[in-house]
Batch of 4 targets.
Target 1
Amino acid sequence: MLAQRPDIKTELKEAIAQALNALGLSELPEIIVQETPAGKEGDYGTPVAMSLARALRKAPPQIAADLLQNIQLPSWVRRTFVVGGYLNFELEPAFLVQSAVLPLPPFPKTEGKVLLEHTSVNPNKELHVGHLRNICLGDSLARILRFAGREVEVMNYIDDTGRQAAESLYALEYFGLSSAGASEKYDHWVGRAYVRLHQAMEDPEKKAAIEQGVQKTLHRLEEGQLRLEVDKILRSQLQTMYRLGAEYNALVWESDIVREGLLGKAMQALEGSPYVSRPTEGKYAGAFVMDTSAFIPGLEDPYLVLIRSNGTSTYTAKDIALQFWKMGLLEGIRFKEYDTQPSGALLYSTHPEGLPMPFGGAVETINVVDARQSHALRVVQASLEVEGRHDLAEHCFHLAYETVLLEGKQMSGRKGIVVSVDEVMDEAVRRVLEVIAEKNPDHPNPLEAAEQIGVGAVRFAMIKAEAKKQIDFRYDQALSFEGDTGPYIQYAYARAGSILRKAEEQGALQKQPDFTQTTSYEIILAKAILRFPEAVQDAARNKAPHIVAQYLLDLAAAWNSFYNAKTPDGKPATPVLTAPPGLRGVRLELVKALRSTLRQGLQLLGLQAPEVM
């Protein structure tokens, strides 16, 4: 038996490339190997002959026939034949299934750090449904990239000098609020004060006085006087993030970026560029302005103010300074230990009393920000071009995502039309507990399972669709044990575990498999398992966690089809524990591989794998 899983598609591609060389091609086309459609002959095929028709001035079927004559294939290819313009390969069934049950080798490491920023919620109130998608996408992508061989550093940006934080802190002062009740989470308590302040500002007589108080609070934030007050809100928010399964390497506070002089250094770095100027007349007189017309064509006004004429900086300037630090153009931020996360990993934070640490300096950055901020992110990318660093600009990515509705409703934090992430998770867990009580009243640990299933359902609902599509989160759909949901995949995992536990009780796990007894049912499931590394690579390359989510749904469906398969006379076609000894061993090995793949895939998406549903 082989030691680790072979890369079947890669080995077939290499054989095809050698055959193309034998045909005298000086430049090889892209060689694609794909599974043959259900019901068609063969296991894998290549359409490469079709892409060569013009260059070789031959019909694709003739080119495929020429390839067939020249190809030297591994011994595990049973048969090779031409179908139209395709060259198809039928593999030895025993080899194919045996390959699927072997351990997956680790992905090769890729040089260079990826710095992925996600969450970056204003530290002024509880997280709401609109923040859910950002956290779930960012955390899942970080997991996928690490598994695919990348070094990933996850950053959470803390805007502690912004107006939202100032409004919340001033609201506590304005209403004379001193402490949250014992039963209320601190960020929720502050959030209620924030909404009350905005309601009070609707009164013109109160608005002026409130605005004056907010401005004073802003100045105190900028001077670092209220860091501890912001920190209390942030730590409460982190409890929500941890419950969702998200963890970070570093928190970067905006006040520290400014205090350490990175903003000034970034503007000095841009000073010598021909795309930056200080106009002496017109509407930009006295300001420090960047011209983006060479890098963002089609803008009505391509000029962006970085430093206003009164000397204050814009959000754009701060974003540029942060991006320059992320990609190693600036240094000087200090860090210290901040928290121990649920996994045991340390979380670090920028701090005036910290020490230099090897954060930042990435060769690639990914910013998970909603699609409405696309222009702002494009400006940050353009600033790297202005600085003359096209090489870095090419590796500055924006993972843009559309908004989230809850049961068809749009959220608004200022108006108080929000449902918090905590409430969504609590409600999901409550509903799962009801289902467990009804369907599995003897469950050994219903509270733990409900948390795993409920929170997992919420995460999966945020990940399963392409980021560019709007989500309408509905509890009934997300928590269903059927269809495209997290619980559907978790149930497939639990069912596989149940079979293996019974096999262990019967002593069947120690029996040797006989792969020569493989049937067509095992081949279909094996091919689904073998797709896992390709799905991971596609998701990492396209920065698209939904690809792994859709793969897991397909794998769970393939497992359910295998489990429920019937013979023509209606009898179970794929019994595992009652199969003949050699075939039983094959099926148990497949169930083990399936369970391992489902568990790994769920982990990549940040979902738990319950043993009992």
Target 2
Amino acid sequence: MGLALSIGGYYLLTQSFVTRWIVTSSLSSLSGGEVTADAVTITLGGGIDLKGGVLRAPGVAGPGGTIFEVRRLRAKTDPWAMLRGSVVLEDVEVESPMLRISQSVDDATVNVASLALRGGGSGSGAPTQIGTLPRVTVRGGVIELGEHRASGEFTSLRRIEVVGDVEREADEGGAAVLSLRQAENGVALEGGMEVLGRVSAKALTLELGRLSLSSLPPEHVPTPLREAFRQMRLEGEATGVAFEYWFEGRGVTARIPLAGLAVSLPLEPQPGEDKDENKIPLSEEDAKRRMRMEGVSGEIEITAGGLRGDLAGAIEGVPYTLTVEWGGWNQGAPFDATITTTAYRLEQHPDILWFAPGVVRLRLEQFDNPTGLVDATVRVFRERGATPDAEMPIRVSGDVRVREGVAAFDRFPYQFQNIDAHITFDETRIDFRSLTGVATSGATIAASGFIAPPNEHPEVRILVESSNLPTDEKLQVAMRGKGRVFDELFNYDALAALRGAGVLAPSAAEATAQRPFIELGGRASVTALVTRALGEGKNWGDVITIRFPQVTLLPRAVPYPLLGTDVTLVSRDDLATLETGTFKGLSGASVAITARVDLAALSDPDVDFVPEVTVRATDLPTDALL
């Protein structure tokens, strides 16, 4: 009878529903969750065999509350301590376990946060470090990431079959470390993704090894991050992508190390402007463009509240470094991005200008879309509105330095090369702080000025000063319609006639005292001041001053060669005058000239050009030139 009672008691304590109740109650107390099992067996040799185990988060309804399931768990334990309600497990081996990490769509809390870990049988009720977990060997396991609602609805986002270990980490945080590898049919895949994790009292971190971002559709990431992933259109592979689930309700954070990847930022292209300062709408296809970064390295941190990152790569073909913070995923979310590029070879019409205000593109076109080597720092930002629905304007500021540049201002489009320039700008003004260059003719240029604000109706003051400028075809073209004055002052048809008649020598080598050789024109210094008053409907104005130390004229009206000294021509808007100058003929005559030209008529090819010119000459010899 005693033997039978002993056998019955042994069975009752080690293999019965009592065993199951004792063990699951102890594990529930230890984990802070609700533990159930189909069967539990304890051996006197210190072994425990649990089948059909489930750990649920208290207060979380539906599948999202199931944190852990295991087909079978075997471990070593102190059976007498176990039976007294103190669970201490060692060398744990689990078969077909499933770890489910689920975030609430309603309040961003994570199911694991509902657990309140306790010390192993201490009875103190004080929370203990997770480092008290034993070493765990995982066979044929699954990590499932999902999200749930208070109604009990659950959505599985991603399931990863794994094998590996969970073990203590000898650090002050007392965390448990997961070291798992992607598997198939319970066998680790060669080259498969690694899953590293860390469970501390504050958070669960899962770090994915090699991950193809293009194979991670937005539907596989938590809802708060889903729109971010969709807009970013990530392409390429990343190593060490980490998801951090904070237990106290801070939500989930994703950290993505980038190396050679492609990613889009939610910056939209801007409509252009024509020369009449009218908006040019974007095509439907262009309006869908977003700023694209390629060859990206660095790290992006994404939360439900936005993103931050330090990156390097190429933005729309421009090499850059980028520091960015984005304060949300709604249409008018605040952001702050600083872009830096060094020694970028700027070509005409770069794609990145799609994302600059249309007026900026218009102003660049006014400088013939300059090219050169560019060093630039540009800040693009939008401040947070006073209310969530208030969308603030995008603001831009920058500092640009250009080397080896080529440009021409459309009000005086004389092209210069080897330009060194320093330009600063923001949404209120563009400042041309300095600009120097050299033309192929040997002429030099220096320019400065401002456009404020850089919109449809700005105030403008641009001062361009050039020296050693030849009176050639390029200068005539740069003066546009006003260049017809050169035809009146430098009559090459009359020059050819005088050479053909033998009055003038055709070359310097053939010149004599009686038949001199002359070349029309000279080298001038030119100052062009371009202005516009602030406001709608204001006209552009320009004052161009041309000074010749020495110049040779052959006027069309009076085809008599004249040598000029200290000659100054001034063009003010639609009126040009000869303001200073001393003239003489080739044979010594003294000549005084006054001239006044209506440039409005001069610029119209359909209107006869009749300048007002008065010539007074003394001591004029009656020679062949006359």
Target 3
Amino acid sequence: MTGVQTCALPISLYPAVKIVDEGRFRTDFDRLLQRNSRMPGILALDTRSMIAGNYAARRDLMTLVNQYGKDVVKSVMIMMLHKTSEMFGARLKQLPIGTFRSREWNEIGGAAPELQDEVYEVQCTMTNTGQKLIFDFSGTSPQCTGFANCGIGGLRSGVIAGFMEPIAYDIPWNAGILVNVEIISQEGTLNNPTYPAAVSDGITEGAIVTAAASSGAVCQMLLGSEEFREKTLVTSGANFLGNTLGGLDEHGQMWGTLLMDVIGMTATPTAVSDAKDITGSGGIPYTQFSNVETNELHYPILYLYRRLGRDSWGHGYRRGGRAIELAFKPHRTGAIYMLLWNHGAEFATGGIAGGLSASAVRFKLARGTPIDQLLTEGKVPHSIDEFECTPLAAKGENLLLPADIIYFGVPGSAGYGDPIRREPERVLADVQAGILTTGEAHRFYGVVLTDDGRRVDQAATDEERARINEQRLLFGRFPDEWERMVPPEEEVPRPSRPERRPAENGWRELFKVGMGIKVFRDPEGKGWFACAECGHLYCPADEDPKWRSLLRIGNLNDFSHPTAQMTRVEKPRFFQRQFYCPGCGLMWTNELARADDSILRQFEYDAQWLANL
């Protein structure tokens, strides 16, 4: 992998030892490890489960060797690697050839006060050559002085998690795929740090942000393929709500845990279907976590609820999926120490092809509530918002007291496509299912229901959607007309509506990108981008159509999702940029960005590939 090097650490706490030596379990070293742990029982179980896994793998492998012989088994393994590499190479030839970009952020470097204002960016430029995928992370922020870096393993696993599910879902997952993958990264960056950078939170920080940036670039490539945008887009989950809980239980015994409920994440929608609810975490396409009763049995906590978050998902032509939310309190203990270590409370992951983002990471803390009295009276709160509560930052420490309630809200998935193009009947069905209010149907989808909420008022809906389109055309400005890319204090109408430029007759349509862009070839063989809805001509295919689109910029909670930003709301650093067709107002893409971030060119197709279509 080009540009990636590991570093040798000059010191080690323990010398390399074998906990199982020639088949004998080293009880002396096992005791040493347990004596140095605050949770020796859990550590002992972890150690023994890993050993059991190795024994099971060895047993199964030896069964094959004994049945077929080592030469046959080795030959089959080599054949599988070659076959997988051939299959993956053939898959890359099916996909659009070109360069595709994405960027993601991680706020706050650690719990220390001096790290609270830090923001780290991961840039991913992915090129599909038709023979290999090249992931280039040039431009990624320097390594942080906190614990949010990830090592080489996190970089590699982030890349693999970013493309394996959406591209190789029907191909055997083995090292043969990696022959067709190259990673470019510079030492001393967030996902390729050098000693003595801290990487203790690397998996849920640097690695997940790397996976999100990688899958974002992959998604831009798949949007140009009808087969793949209708089948699969990106992996499950872009945020892991890292949490460490601990203290003394009612017996005075030390306890600690990480609540794995938070892997109740969800994948994105496709071009033809809404997202499924709770599909697992990134790279792990299933969900498995403890029952509420099991956690309450082992730890001094009492759940008030654990359920699908009604409003965690993003709006779009195809809506996002719902993730899990939960609230609990300390139970039969004086206090619980809580450490949060994650990202995404200040901003939400952006939408797809004009869809809107889902919620941000949501932590809320309600102090000194009358919860014990309410439970005594048989009253169970339905929401933490029934109490005065405070949003918490993505990283930090808190001490939970018996009357406190803590809420974890996992972000759902973002939407796909312009929300006001969603069929009104689907919007009505969401309202009737209880996952959308009539107010949200009106605000995000431009759908007006009858007074009884049972039917769509089609005339009023058509009028409202026309009004939203007109607002886009009236207040949108071309990117080069913006002096600074921040929300204006007051939107000023354009002096005149942009002129619509239709594609010429006789031009050949090559393919569609998402639901908003079509690629044409003119009679002279030159490629062009045009609106997929009204045919407005943006620009030649070697330019970025964003620069020929109308742009509006707004605060995240106003322009995307009501809880797309939970912290720094008064002085936001991130904004939503929405890009519209100047001819019809279709929102074909959007991006999360800070004021000084350049407009991201998301796709750049290979000229020779276009010429050969």
Target 4
Amino acid sequence: MQQFIFWKNWHGPHKVFYNVYLCLFAASLLIFLVHYFTGIKVIISWDIIDELKSVDVVLDKFTKNFYDFKVDTHSYLIFQKFAASSFNITYPALLFFIFVSLSIILLLSAVTCLKSAGYYTGMGIFVLLLVSLKFELLNVSADLPHILLIVAIILYCSTSYYFYAYRKDTTFQSRFLIFSIITILLGCLIWLKSNVNYPILYFTNYGCIVTVILTIIFIFVVSLENIDGILYLTTSSANIRSSNKLLHFVIFSLIYLLCLISLYLENTPFFEFDLIWLNAFFVFIISAILGIWGFKKRNILFSGQMPFAPIGAFVYAGLAIISIITMSYYFATGNDPMVKVFEEVIILTHLIRGGLFFLYILNNFLTPFFQNLQVHKIVYQPNRTPFFIVTGLSIVGIAAMMFKSHLDQYDKVIAGYHNGLGDLYAAEKNYVLAKQYYNDTYVHGEQGHKSVYAIASLAKARGDDRTAIRYYNKALSVKPTPFSYANLSDAYLGREKIFDALFILEEGIKKFPLSGELYNNIALVYNSMNMADSTLFYLDMASALLKNKKVPASNLLGSYSTSELHSDIFNDSSQFQTIADSLQNNLELSSYLPFVNNRLVSPPTSPPLTPPQGGRTGHLLILPRGKSDGKVSPFGGDLEG
């Protein structure tokens, strides 16, 4: 157990730091899994849109002097449909910012403990990060737009050099505390002086290039950990015969590498595999976890520059958290070009470097295999081919594959970067600039679902249904989602193409049979066509599938009211009346405004009222006559006789 919890005997503060960051590592893994499985649902939600339908309501009927009289008024029914919201990237951006900030502070503190090469390399990358954050766009100072960047560079670099060159004996916790204070002070200054609405979104989307580069580096670093893990599993026991150890290692490694080859071929236009059970990102996650111990074993290769305990462990933890939370962010925001880059890099690095590491093991350690030794303990102590050959050939091989694809990965990174900037300016309501950045992804040949859906949403927000229809159809051709189907049908309805709206909702229900929102929306389309049976059927399905059952219940009661008030269209409304009567007695809906309104507007099932005697004649939501603006009126209450 001691070899697994290797930090158990570390100095107290170092052990506390490492335990805290292991918890952050575990939290980032959890966030990654949540965002991986939920995807774009993290930033898109279902909005409930109220629509008003005017009706003439008979308040009372009575007979006097052999003549029939009725008292009627003008009122409205409230129908509710679901529409996909615009992108809201605040939540994933905030998570990204917090985790990356904590990791950068840890890495800064660790870098000041390294030798010259490690220190200057680390600080160079950090300065590049500061420059990429575009402090000048925060409008902290109109006269000196770059003053904040200059202050940040001076504070961080001078402090780090002081620790590196003059105060080598400063404790790690003191270094961490000083860098944390600097970061907090700069954050407070930006919060108080910045003239933009979402400074975190600026940091997240402008500074992401450096985090993407760090993520790619980390993927390369851990790409051999799965082969190393197979080596550990097959050679850790001293009871297995030597020939079996070698055979098991070769078989399991070849199976793993063949699976990676299948994943690589799956991403080419010439082969189509359906390896649902194997996923590049889960290959990476396993590598990242195994790397906690694998990086310690490799310390023999670079101990002169960076001792593992605790500096190397801190560097690994910081890079791992940045990498995982970066991937998580792009899953949450649906940034498909960037996700595709990570997938391709994972497959290429794990296949090429992992394959070369496999050959390196066979070339150097056949004799220890036959001697029944635990090869995993000496795998970085070769007697023939040095390990740096594996790294060098891996870089050459990966570069060759990237050039073979005409640096397609570079175009994807730029397209993903522009998608992020489009999200930023859409949040700032600078829709012209947002659309320009989304369209720029087309220039790089990577206009995927994210960008076309975003352009469609921007067009819909401006009331440009023609453009919205074109881009929502593009989004559906790339990646169908219930959100696209719902908004596309709404755009068709905006252009009074009711049958197109109906057909697109039916197609959406075929692809997403568990989407209660689509069932609710198609029920309203059928209701507008006065088709009672279809309306009842789809509202019943919506009620069965939706967690929020108030919406279909309210719509059902509104449909019932419509059928009763227009009996010339609905000859038999017994089904509606039975269901509506039971809904009216549902106490959970007694305070839900649309349901209450539709219940009050619905025709009474009790005997006719007596002639007015100057008192109250009913409880209705009475709205002034005129054209509805599509919003719920705040007026309501008793009708005074």
